[in-house]
Amino acid sequence: MIISKAPVLTDAQLAEVESIVGEFGCKIQVIQGAHRRIYAIIGDERSETMVNRILGLAYVDRVDRMESVYKLMDRRSDLANHRMVIGGVEVGREPLIMAGQCTIDPAKGNAFLETAQAVKEAGAHVIRGGVWKPRTSPHSFQGSVKSLGYLLEARERTGLPVIAEVMDEAQLKIALEAEVDLLQIGTRNALNYTLLAEIGRQTAEKGTPVLLKRSRHMGPIDEFISAAEYIVAHGNPNVLFCPRGTMPELDGYRNHPDESIAPIIKEKSWAPVIFDPSHSVGRARYVPAASLAAIAYGADGLIIETHVDPLSGIGDDPKQSVKPDVLAAIIRDVKQMWALSSRWTGNGAQA
Ligand code: PEP
Ligand code: MN
Questions:
Q1: Ligand 1 pocket residue status of 244, Cβ below 6 Å
Q2: Residue 93: is it exposed, middle or buried by C-beta count within 10 angstroms (0-12/13-18/19+)?
Q3: CATH 3.20.20.70 residue ranges for the chain
Q4: How far is the CA of 141 from the centre of ligand 1 (A)?
Q5: Distance of CA 283 to the CA centre of its chain
Q6: Domain 2-63 adopts which CATH fold?
Q7: Which of 51, 100, 187, 330 could form a disulfide with 128 if both were Cys (CB 3.0 to 4.6 A apart)?
Q8: Could you identify the atom of ligand 1 that is nearest to the CA of residue 189?
Q9: Per-residue pLDDT for the chain (351 aa), expressed as one digit of tens each?
Q10: How far, in Å, from the CA of 81 to the mean position of ligand 1?
């Protein structure tokens, strides 16, 4: 849909627009409104080059596309019925809970193993543990490959799948060789298209689920969905959206909580939404409310930083990890909230 600056295009302008869209196999249908004319593009209007060429015309105000630019992630795509089973949960049927430490301290591996056991007992389905950490300061602890051993041991002991963040191809290679069950792409790499494409390629065969965090700089929702499209377009349809709060922060919180985008993502895309309350609010005491809010908004699950003894942890754990008894209470309440809100969210109703 082309909106011109003036209410009507001149004959010469219309001819120019028709000739551009014609090069891309499209036509123009003129619609006469009460005060102006609208020029609908008939055909496949997804070409970026076509749209940019029209936008480059001085007499064009804007182009509104009816078709979404993400072909695979769109709710109307052939993948709309794609289902994932993670940690024994068919995603969308019941809340999927991932929990564990922000960071595995390689000097305190036993604490992580205790955390893993405790989150399992609390009812989590997937264990999280940061091996490599994206840190704002290069002087902060950057994570250690030594922690990978503890992550794998936790899997061995609990029988639950594990998730860890990878930030580059070298880490991806190590994680895939170790058969880490799920990969996390952090907010800082949320728009690293080369990495997203590479992850799609390297996980295509195995279909390792990828938890894609939202870019923290108020990334538009279409941009978030298009980032997921990179992974899927390169062969792996097992992508989960993870809103985790955006910047600038809401005064008092670590970020601006964004669990409310769950229904909007779900109107646009078929992929599940797993909300991260821990990084969103950034304080353990606010995590329960943020978790319940996300479920009320229709999130399919949560990833919650949890530690047996948060104050002895590193990374984010001291400030935002909940203890396992709190996690257990959150999971109990989340189940109730899921049941209560399913009539509005439609969750749990999939055939
Ligand atoms: C994390 O999960 O510990 C993390 C660093 O997340 P984010 O990329 O959302 O900041
Ligand atoms: Mn963290």
A1: yes
A2: middle
A3: 78-345
A4: 14
A5: 21
A6: Alpha-Beta Plaits (3.30.70)
A7: 100
A8: 8
A9: 999 999 999 999 999 999 999 999 999 999 898 999 999 999 988 899 999 999 999 999 999 987 787 889 999 999 999 999 999 999 999 999 999 999 999 999 999 999 999 999 999 999 999 999 999 999 999 999 999 999 999 999 999 999 999 999 999 999 999 999 999 999 999 999 999 999 999 999 999 999 999 999 988 999 999 999 999 999 999 999 999 999 999 999 999 999 999 999 999 999 999 999 999 999 999 999 999 999 999 999 999 999 999 999 999 999 999 999 999 999 999 999 999 999 999 998 643
A10: 29
- Residues 339 and 348: their CA atoms lie apart, in Å, by 8
Write out the DSSP string of 174-211: HHHHTT-SEEEE-GGGTT-HHHHHHHHHHHTTTT--EE
C-beta separation of 63 from 216 below 8 A: no
Q: Does residue 102 have its Cβ closer than 6 Å to ligand 1?
A: yes
Gap from CA of 278 to ligand 2 centroid (Å): 7
Block residue for tokens 């509005």: 344
- Which amino acid is present at 69? V
φ and ψ at 29, to 5 degrees?
A: -110, 120
Provide CATH code, domain 78-345.
3.20.20.70
| Tokens 């809010």 sit on residue | 293
Return d(Cα 101, Cα 318) in angstroms, integer: 10
CA 182 distance to own-chain centroid: 13
Is the torsion defined by CA of 257, 120, 174, 211 positive or negative?
negative
Q: What is the pTM of this model?
A: 0.93
Q: Which atom of ligand 1 is nearest to the CA of 128?
A: 2
103 Cα distance to chain centroid = 20
How distant, in Å, are the alpha carbons of 18, 20, 24, 40, 60 from that of 9? 11, 15, 20, 13, 9
CATH 3.30.70-classified regions of the chain: 2-63
Q: Using the structure block, give the residue that is written with the tokens 């980032």.
A: 227
Cis peptide before 248 (omega within 30 of 0): yes
